[in-house]
Specification:
mainly alpha, 5 helices, elongated
Length: 137
C-alpha cells in the first residue's frame, strides 16, 4: 500500500505540473526559440522519466491491492467510483502526452487558458479518488 501511495504522489505531482508548463509554453514562448527547445526538454523528461513510471507503478501496485483478498469490497460503490476516476486520470495523462507531442512538432493549437481549464480536471478526479477511498460510501 505504501508503494501505491508513493507512486500516486509522484504521478499527481507531474499531472499538476505538466499542464502548468504548457500554459507558460503556449503563452510566452516563441516556437523554435531556445526557450521553446528548453521547455520541450523539460516537458519530455517530466512525462517520460517521472510521470510515465509513476503512472505505471500506481497501476501495478493498485492492481496488486485489488487482487489482495479483503482489501476491496466490490459490493460497495467506492471501488467503482475510484476505478472510474483512475481511468479518467489515465486518459488525462495520455491527453497530456499528445499535447506534448504537439509542442514538439510545433503545432500546438491550444491557448494558455485551455491548459489552465484542463489543469482543474486532475483536481476534481483526485477529490473523487480520495473521498471514495477514505469515506468508502
Amino acid at each position: 500500500m505504501a508503494l501505491h501511495v508513493v507512486s500516486v504522489i509522484a504521478w499527481m505531482a507531474g499531472i499538476f505540473y505538466l499542464p502548468r508548463l504548457f500554459v507558460y509554453h503556449a503563452e510566452r514562448i516563441e516556437t523554435g526559440s531556445e526557450t521553446d527547445i528548453l521547455f520541450q526538454e523539460m516537458e519530455r523528461k517530466l512525462l517520460r522519466l517521472i510521470m510515465n513510471p509513476a503512472m505505471t507503478s500506481t497501476w501495478v501496485f493498485g492492481l496488486a491491492l485489488v487482487f489482495t483478498p479483503g482489501i476491496v469490497d466490490w459490493s460497495a460503490v467506492w471501488p467503482w467510483t475510484k476505478a472510474a476516476a483512475v481511468i479518467a486520470m489515465t486518459w488525462f495523462h495520455h491527453w497530456l502526452g499528445y499535447r506534448r507531442k504537439d509542442f514538439a512538432a510545433g503545432r500546438n493549437r491550444l491557448q494558455g487558458r485551455s491548459y489552465r481549464i484542463m489543469n482543474e480536471v486532475p483536481t476534481l478526479l483526485l477529490l473523487i479518488i480520495v473521498f471514495s477511498v477514505i469515506v468508502k460510501f
